[in-house]
Amino acid sequence: MFLLSLALAAAxxxxxxxxxELVKQHGEAxxxxxxxxxxxxxxxxxxxxxxxxxxxxxxxxADEATLTATLARFEAHLEQLDGHLLEIGRAWRTPxxxxxxxxxxxxxxxxxxxxxxxxxxxxxxNKLAFVALLNFPxxxxxxxxxxxxxxRADWAAARLxxxxxxxxxxxxxxxxxxxxxxxxxxxxxxxLWMHHVLAEDGRRLFPAGKRLISHWNLRDELxxxxxxxxxxxxxxxxxxxxERIVTQQIPAAVIDNPRLDWNPFTNVVTVAPPETVExxxxxxxxxxxxxxxxxxxxxxxxxxxxxxKKADPFSPAxxxxxxxxxxxxxxxxxxxVKALLEEVLSSPLxxxxxxxxxxxxxxxxxxxxLWFNGFLARGPIPEAALDARVRAKYPTAGAFARDLPRILTxxxxxxxxxxxxxxxxxxxxxxxxxxxxxxARRGDFPHLRTRVEKxxxxxxxxxxxxxxxxxxxxxxxxxxxxxxxxxxxVPNTAFTEAIAFVFQAKDLELLGxxxxxxxxxxxxxxxxxxxxxxxxxxALVDLEVWHWLYAHPKATPAQLKKxxxxxxxxxxxxxxxxxxxxxxxxxxxxxxxxxxxPLYLFNYPLGHLIAFQLEAQVAQRGQVGPEVERFSKFGxxxxxxxxxxxxxxxxxxxxLLRATEAALAR
Length: 666
Ligand SMILES: [Zn+2]
Hints:
- By secondary structure, the protein is mainly alpha-helical.
- The chain has helices at residues 2-10, 16-26, 31-44, 52-59, 64-97, 107-112, 119-125, 128-135, 141-145, 152-162, 170-188, 216-224, 231-246, 296-311, 321-330, 334-345, 349-361, 383-393, 397-402, 404-410, 415-422, 459-480, 493-504, 507-510, 518-551, 557-580, 593-596, 603-621, 625-632, 639-647, 654-665; strands spanning 191-193, 211-213, 260-263, 268-271, 426-429, 435-437, 447-450.
- Strand 3 and strand 4 (268-271) form a beta hairpin.
- Residues 1-11 have low confidence and may be disordered.
- Zinc ion binds at residues 467, 471, 497, 500.
């Protein structure tokens, strides 16, 4: 009903005569299908698509057998289309991505080409998208969540139409891409030369040449501060820097400028003494200009919002960016995700973990301890010993590939299943870091990209390769062993990451070292709990800011800044100030993703919860391989339905909280 009224509002098309005609032809029993199909088509039909009536007369299917056969035809043909386009893209990027000899000048041009870029447009233009929308229901998230009695064919049909839920015009899509690219570039160039960022007392705390990008490098530098005596002063300085970035009080002239000194406490800018300027410093103005950055951070975020908003009318089933992030992206209602985040944030375990942190640090906690990583002990085996063992075992990517059957049987797969998987995972020597690339049609195989240095694979490379192998194993099962290819895959990235983490945690055992002891496991749980708590708070800020944007679509960058600062402080005061102090700090607004990749952050805490839930299930069964196979081949249903099959419960914070409780009790 909702869809129908929306369609009529969008296009002044009277569908009643057409509905009556089709019902007369196909019978009263078809009325609901006719009405829904017509509304779904009309909502996305454009003038240039021609006359609606002849199309509908020709393609409405009432016969059950023809309908079933049509769904199967779409399934088989889309598998071929998606699978082959993916292969073309992969082949064209191969010279750039793999160690296959010197690059030609033309290679980047091949690599930049995306064969599927116009696919969705093409399928609307040739009407295949409309045939799907006319005959199969385009479901809302609520309908999918309530889908108790759905058959696998019902799920397949929902995935087919879901693919055509939006028809965003190329010009609007281009604006979204442009806004995103501009925000990415802004973040990518947001560096600070730390030798020129002064402490509260004016000292230089950071070595020459250290150039850190906001916010990831700043945060990692802050984490590194737990390892040494000057750490606390550095951490306090970085927190001041972050606050000045969020409030945009940072002087514009000091961004990426090693020729100016800046004291973030007093906000005073001075010319850097020549002997402190790095020899390779880029040319920059050396005038002590203290004018603040003119709210560029918020102008970029606002541009992302305006671009996303233009896509709203073309996405009738999820007509805001927020709804698309949850209904289409996560497939969990926002209220449910928020409740999970708040359950972690307000857990009574938080002050208990904080007390343990104070004990370890021998001081009261401060805002910087939002990023506390002092639970992570150094492993008992020195990195050099690990590197030596891995290098001897894997001088080449080929050596790793040949060892896959052994690795997989060590992960509890039967020899037959280990062989099956090894034959379906292609190992490539990558130029970049590790990466797992799925396949999209049966007959093609997932690829495991791993970087092997001249002297052989090192431990870090092995650790990543085992993580990627987890992805690849999931990718094989969720393509080859799922019953329908329209249901290939897992509900969202958090699920495949969780499976990859289950593998990664076994890396030392796979090298023949003893598995980590109980104390290491206990500290790992506490560390994960704290990370989840931290990123849950950040994710809440992101969400609230987007609600504010939709409520204030005409906001200026300055007004948006005020709203972000206010929101970040409020959430800090509610959840963090009690254990970390620093009342009213806007620190939670520092994440770069908020600007360049908005409405994604909530996936991180969700990922931690899902990982704990799957780990608990695997631990309870005492075997990795068969459980991962059982999870993965269930395919692309909603997260809760998937998790019910995997663990007997919907997505939940309970396993993380239980593990944390147990870690505290020891
Ligand atoms: Zn991963």
